[in-house]
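User: I'll paste a sequence; please echo it back and then give the predicted structure.

Assistant: Echoing your sequence first, then the prediction.
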Amino acid sequence: MASENRTIIGIFVALIVIIAVAFGWWYLSRDSADEPLETAVAATPTPVPEPTPTLEERLSSHLSGTTLNTSDIVVRELVSEISANPKLASWLVNEDLVRRFVASVNNISSGVSPRAHLDFLRPKEGFEVDQRRGGALVIETDSYGRYDLVAQVFASLDTDGTVALYGELKPLIDEAYAEIGPTNAEFDDRLDRAFDLLLAAPVLEEPAQVEQLIVTYAWADDRLEALSGAQRHFLRMGPDNVRLIQGKLRELRAALAAQPGE
């Protein structure tokens, strides 16, 4: 619809220009003897506004000359381009942001929970369960609420801006992955695998039953317990948050796939 509107506006402007030119030609071709002589007044030239830099141009100018070891300050500056949520900026006071991102994606793609690299996202409130009649334990709904902010911040990311930022940071991302990945391995493959695993996680509509172990809990449903560690941790965020994050992941994957060369 936007492209249609631009086309219609373009045709309209073109018609105005054609009419103006035709009228000017008719006016200038008339017999000057029939017209009174008027003093020409020089028109004041209208200043041409400077073109607004594109998002890619703004990101590129920020990242010019940035190395992996000096990238933290630049990444923090660029956060305002992809999310207006102030909490995201407060999380980025941590160091080695590009390396944390790469290591987290690598862990998820391997089925491992990325909690070791994202400890700053750990909820302050404890995990809670509710004992039902018959002794069954289910996850307390309030436990899901501990992750509401994380899911909301992730969903607030501007899709196009995030993809543009990823493209600009790609050389640094590849450099960080080369530090931990196998020789000749591609980070894009790990990212794609991480997308697959998180999008394959089920959305639990029923109260999730768990079993208490010595110091932690396991899913009572063997099918859930058989999921990867990353997926099991993801499910602990609760069905609403899982659905919200998966929606943004689908948007990001589609936008990445639409990039030239993908």
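The longest strand covers residues 209-212. The first helix runs from residue 2 to 29.
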